[in-house]
């Protein structure tokens, strides 16, 4: 017969005087006190990994985990005698439900701390981890640490996450949040059509946003959801970053503005403006449309064709025309952005003459 070692009482003795949970923990035995204090960093403010705890006492990982689980059950029962702590738990449940039925650990603790609770972050994490109705997920390979409340359940979260991953992988490109959510709702609402409480959750976009935010495999930028390998939203080179900025802004930008946007969008510590300018100059994907202002060649920009189209329109009109009028006529013949037409009129001042606010005519020779 094999006997498990017990934690050395003297070695594992802890001082509970510095924690506001003393009135709860003093009813736990010394081994339970030690595991809870070390696991949640109640005294040192620094949580100790389970691996370190069981190594400190030369005990099996499973034995330490048994002590932890037993002590959390005891803590939850003891909390019933402390209305202020019970209130913290109920507040946390309400916050999670309001935010889409699941929520990142850190954000929940921050929002709960803002409700005038007397507990610090580590103490809050302990009491929330012990609750029967607030589920704490901290060992899931798909996600960061998070809490959820019923009617949500872990398998549902995993299934939706894996379905999102499969849809993105099959699409071989990013999807907008709206499109991805629509596909997921169509699949899972049918599956749970007789469960009204689950259908309510599935109708809440915040639920899906949290799954993506918590995921270690799914990513979001602006309104797009993507996998790590997709260059359209995870550009690795500077050229692709510039392209992403222009696509998002959907207009021509000065190279200094492009540099500023690249730094902002991709949260870079620093960026060299000349580097951006060099990329714009050397790559044929970008066109200098006016005074170091660039946009994408793929947008179908053609100076010569657009100039000729505007000239034809103005000659037929035999009068000055507003830029909006010119744009309307040009768009009947070719797909071109209104800003393109304005840039053509401004750049080719030798051909087009501005005679009033937004009014142009062919320059008289």
Reported for the largest beta sheet, the result is:
3 strands, antiparallel
Strand content: 5-15%
N/C terminus separation: 109 Å
**Radius of gyration based on Cα positions:** 31 Å
Q: What is the tally of helical segments?
A: 17
Give the beta-strand count: 12
Strand line-up in the sheet with most strands: 1-3-2
Which descriptors would you attach to this protein?
17 helices; Arc Repressor Mutant, subunit A; 5 domains; 12 strands; 365 residues; 3-stranded antiparallel β-sheet; mainly alpha; single chain
Molecular structure report:
- The protein is mainly alpha-helical and 365 residues long.
- The termini are far apart.
- It has a 3-stranded antiparallel beta sheet, sandwiched between helices.
- It has 5 domains: 58 residues, Winged helix-like DNA-binding domain superfamily/Winged helix DNA-binding domain (Arc Repressor Mutant, subunit A); 66 residues; 74 residues; 62 residues; 60 residues, Arc Repressor Mutant, subunit A, CATH 1.10.10.
- A hairpin with a 2-residue loop joins strand 5 and strand 6.
- The mean pLDDT is 86.
- It is elongated, with a radius of gyration of 31 Å.
- It contains 17 helices and 12 strands.
């Amino acid at each position: 017969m094999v006997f498990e070692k017990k934690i050395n009482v003297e070695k594992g003795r802890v001082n509970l005087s510095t924690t506001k949970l003393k009135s709860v923990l003093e009813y736990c035995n010394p081994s339970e006190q030690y595991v809870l204090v070390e696991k949640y960093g109640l005294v040192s403010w620094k949580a100790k990994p389970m691996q370190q705890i069981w190594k400190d006492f030369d005990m099996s990982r499973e034995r330490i985990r048994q002590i932890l689980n037993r002590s959390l059950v005891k803590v939850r029962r003891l909390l019933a005698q402390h209305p202020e702590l019970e209130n913290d738990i109920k507040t946390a449940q309400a916050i999670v439900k309001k935010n889409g039925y699941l929520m990142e650990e850190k954000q929940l603790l921050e929002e709960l701390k803002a409700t005038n609770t007397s507990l610090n972050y580590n103490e809050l994490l302990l009491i929330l981890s012990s609750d029967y109705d607030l589920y704490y997920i901290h060992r899931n390979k798909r996600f960061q640490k998070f809490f959820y409340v019923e009617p949500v359940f872990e398998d549902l979260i995993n299934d939706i996450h894996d379905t999102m991953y499969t849809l993105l992988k099959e699409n071989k490109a990013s999807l907008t949040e709206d499109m991805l959510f629509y596909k997921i709702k169509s699949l899972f609402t049918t599956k749970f059509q007789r469960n009204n409480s689950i259908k309510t959750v599935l109708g809440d976009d915040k639920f899906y946003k949290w799954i993506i935010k918590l995921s270690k495999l799914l990513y979001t930028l602006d309104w797009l959801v993507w996998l790590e390998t997709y260059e359209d939203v995870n550009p690795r080179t500077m050229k692709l970053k510039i392209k992403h900025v222009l696509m998002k802004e959907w207009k021509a930008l000065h190279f200094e503005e492009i540099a500023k946007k690249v730094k902002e969008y991709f949260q870079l510590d620093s960026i060299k403006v000349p580097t951006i300018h060099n990329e714009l100059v050397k790559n044929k994907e970008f066109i200098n449309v006016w005074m170091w202002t660039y946009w994408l060649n793929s947008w179908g920009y053609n100076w010569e064709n657009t100039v000729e189209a505007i000239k034809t329109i103005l000659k037929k009109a035999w009068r000055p025309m507003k830029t909006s009028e010119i744009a309307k006529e040009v768009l009947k013949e070719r797909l071109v952005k209104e800003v393109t037409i304005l840039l053509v009129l401004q750049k080719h001042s030798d051909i087009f003459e501005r005679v009033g606010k937004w009014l142009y005519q062919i320059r008289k020779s």
